[in-house]
Amino acid sequence: MPCTHLPRIPVLYPNHCEAIDRNVLFILYPRQQGPNLHDQILSYCKQAGFVPRIVRETSPVHTILAMVAANAGVSLVPASLQQVQHHEVVYRPLEDPALQVELAVAWQRADTSPLLHDFLNVVRRVSQEFRHSYSAPPSGSYLKDAR
């Protein structure tokens, strides 16, 4: 069951004052752990007119945030991470919400467990809340069109 689509947004160190373009260093999730996501980010940058300079591929996301905080580069993370209050990073909107990650749940339809059905009801409710929370169009973009 597809749950929701979460937009991706740039995460930067606080004194990062330039737009994201071909000169900015990127920190991404390892391609082996998420080839579709990795390729989607590369494609998104290509559409903006540049190839990102990837300096590190790492996970989990808290490691990515720590590396951004240490001025090692910038990254694109799910918008839901804005809820992670990290005083050494800032989140910026993208003008084009096309860069998204789909969240989904799979289960055996024959499973009649009340616990499973309660869980699925929670997933549906939270997914609906996410859709409302992250559907507002962003104001401005931090991804510079390098063309």
Percent of residues in beta strands: 15-25%
Amino- and carboxy-terminal Cα gap = 39 Å
- CATH class call: Alpha Beta
- Could you tell me the CATH topology label: D-Maltodextrin-Binding Protein, domain 2
Known CATH architecture:
3-Layer(aba) Sandwich
Task: Give the radius of gyration.
Answer: 17 Å
**How many runs of DSSP E, i.e. beta strands?**
6
Q: How many domains, in number, for the residues?
A: 1
CATH homologous superfamily identity:
Periplasmic binding protein-like II
Sheet with the most strands, sense and barrel status: 4 strands, antiparallel
What is the global morphology? elongated
pLDDT < 50 runs, ≥5 residues: 136-147
Structural class comes to: alpha+beta
Range of helix content: 25-40%
Summarize model confidence as the mean pLDDT: 75
Question: Which secondary structure elements does this structure contain, and how are they paired or packed?
Answer:
Elements lengths: L1 E11 L12 E4 L6 H13 L5 E5 L3 H9 L5 E4 L11 E2 L8 E5 L9 H20 L14
Parallel strand pairs: 2-3
Antiparallel strand pairs: 1-4, 1-5, 1-6
What does this structure look like?
With 147 residues, the protein is an alpha+beta fold. The protein has one domain (2-133): D-Maltodextrin-Binding Protein, domain 2 (3-Layer(aba) Sandwich). Helix content is 29%, strand content 21%. The protein is built from three helices and six strands, in the order ββαβαβββα. Strands 1, 4, 5 and 6 form a four-stranded antiparallel sheet that branches. The N and C termini lie far apart (39 Å).
